[in-house]
Amino acid sequence: MTATTIPGAVVPAATPATRVDGGLLADIRRFGAADVNACFSCGVCTATCPLVTNDGTFPRRMIRYAQLGLRDKLLSSRELWTCYACGQCSEQCPQQAEPGEFMAATRRWAVASYDRTSLARTLATRPLAGSVIAVLLAVILAAFMYTAHGPMGGSSLELFGFIPSDLIHNLGIAVMAIVLVTGGAGLAAMVLALRRSVVVPPARPGRAVLAAAWRAIAVEALGQQRYRGECETETRPWYRQRWFVHAATMWGFLGLLGATLLDYGLELLGIKATGTPVPIWYPVRLLGTVAGLALLYGSTLLILRRARAEERSLRHSTVGDWMFLVLLWLAGATGFVLELALYLPGAPAWGYAVFLVHVAVALELVLLVPFSKFAHAIYRPVALFFLALATSSAEPAGEGSR
Ligand code: SF4
Ligand code: SF4
């Protein structure tokens, strides 16, 4: 990859110099983009995209940046994160430039560029190394916990007698610390890139910031307003539509994470020790059960659709995509099996093995948040926040990405 600096810039910009990266397009192709050299900026994708409002250059402006080698422009683009990979633009592109896939690949590339460890790049571009890392990580976590295991017996499964809850809690804290440091560094890199062009309204900036945060996090990231609305064109029943499957997976994982944290909180408050048997309707257990079922449902459909390449946007999968889905599915499936195993008479040895896999996979999923597809859950709301802030300051369309 080569990088040169050309004073004076190729496109209009407020910056004194624009870096041109001659290898940018080739680099993005490693993340799954098609050859977009054929794109001649006809605008069909712009006319097709359901998310276009008053911006007449989305999404083709991103392709232009890549063609020109404008790495910094792509990294500081908020609009890159507004695309929900519906693939409608790719269906209509007369040049088969696959603009929807280009956007998805560029987001993977952006995640890898913000990441300082190169792990995100390895997971997305090196199938063998990525697979080995994913398996090794789970094995190391499971082996580490197994070294401290207690007895496998009793009249029913005594999971936290087998793996002490203190060990799991301490491992969880260590994993969260790693995520905060590595994810925080990536987020800082993104924010530095994005904020260059944001104008906070001079009048009541605090109110504008709060409104932008509400719109980005509550309305879009959690409520998926535009994903449900403009981007959903399917005639399938609601429970099989893209947005619902995506929401079930996301809410399922968040629910499981929330149940785990609540359980830990109850122990810290002296209300309930981790592992104390409680009935199925006990709120924390109920939350975990419902969330596990949602996660299992969503991740199973996502895996099947990707395997069948049912939709245009699913025709290209990286090892990172697969690894992420398989880990999610394993977390949901093992959690559900454990729920059933707790009702079985005796204490089946396989129940303890499933518990070990469940905890190792859950820890790995959290550990890989900054490097896997999960990183979208961090970066997308931040980009949408800056976009909402720019919109509230009445910034011209596409301003921040010029
Ligand atoms: S990606 Fe395709 S549809 Fe979009 S501007 Fe380029 S050639 Fe036209
Ligand atoms: S994939 Fe869908 S949301 Fe993304 S740019 Fe294309 S039409 Fe728009």
* Ends apart, CA distance between termini: 23 Å
Order the strands across the largest sheet as they lie in space.
1-2
- Number of domain modules: 2
Total strands: the figure is: 2
Helix and strand succession?
EEHHHHHHHHHHHHHHHHH
Shape: elongated
Fraction of residues in β-strands:
under 5%
Explain what this protein looks like in three dimensions:
The chain has 402 residues and is mainly α. Helices cover 60% and strands 2% of the residues. It has two domains: 3-114, Fumarate Reductase Iron-sulfur Protein, Chain B, domain 2 (Orthogonal Bundle); 119-390, no CATH class. It has helices spanning 24-29, 44-48, 60-68, 71-75, 88-92, 99-114, 119-125, 127-146, 159-162, 165-194, 205-222, 225-228, 242-268, 283-308, 319-341, 349-367, 375-392, and strands spanning 3-7, 17-21. It has a two-stranded antiparallel sheet with strand order 1-2. The longest helix has 30 residues, at 165-194. One iron/sulfur cluster binds next to helix 2 and helix 3. One iron/sulfur cluster is lined by residues 48-49, 51, 59, 83-89, 99-100, 103, 231.
